[in-house]
Amino acid sequence: xxxxxxxxxxxxxxxxxxxxxxxxxxxxxxxxxxxxxxxxxxxxxxxxxxxxxxxxxxxxxxxxxxxxxxxxxxxxxxxxxxxxxxxxxxxxxxxxxxxxxxxxxxxxxxxxxxxxxxxxxxxxxxxxxxxxxxxxxxxxxxxxxxxxxxxxxxxxxxxxxxxxxxxxxxxxxxxxxxxxxxxxxxxxxxxxxxxxxxxxxxxxxxxxxxxxxxxxxxxxxxxxxxxxxxxxxxxxxxxxxxxxxxxxxx
Length: 250
Description:
Blueprint: H1 2-16, H2 19-41, E1 46-47, E2 50-51, H3 52-83, H4 87-90, H5 96-122, H6 133-157, H7 161-177, H8 190-196, H9 200-213, H10 220-244
Antiparallel strand pairs: 1-2
Helix pairs in contact: 1-5, 2-3, 2-5, 3-5, 3-6, 3-7, 3-9, 5-6, 5-10, 6-9, 6-10, 9-10
């Protein structure tokens, strides 16, 4: 696994060298979301017996984990392809499994770092309970793994930065923004409640929030099962692309 360790170190160093952009900036963005939404809705909205600010903080943390995990693996691959430096990763005898594990592990690490930063900064504005910390860690890890894998798929598929932007704007952003980060799905009309249940990101957010307050829109066991199956499916699809060398070796 020396190839895995070397590639993981390279990927972590890549985003850490510009941590002001890759870690600090997303934390600031989440803080702005909190300040704006909490200022407008704090005195008007209560969800599942929780103050709106308290309800919002876990959603913002998990959204930051997911978006930054996707951004890390996708940006790394598309930059390497566009600049031609991908050849220096493909030439060494690194297996496609090591390749996958290194990129996803780095993506999860960046997502967790940003999520922890968001939690520290926004936690001052809400009373968090940490009812089930293990669920928090599990859903953060699985969610980061799913988005890191999707980022690899996007980076492999895209040939240009605008194609990657389209993947993010028309798939990742709707999935995360319409997943219950800012609201409970029970506040939606029945039709849209049913539609929300087809969004795997909803289960990541809902299960993650359960870890803080012990309340959720669906059973955390169901959320864990759906997110685990999603991770397995996306992971196997990514490994299949890497094994074939799709748009990388050929």
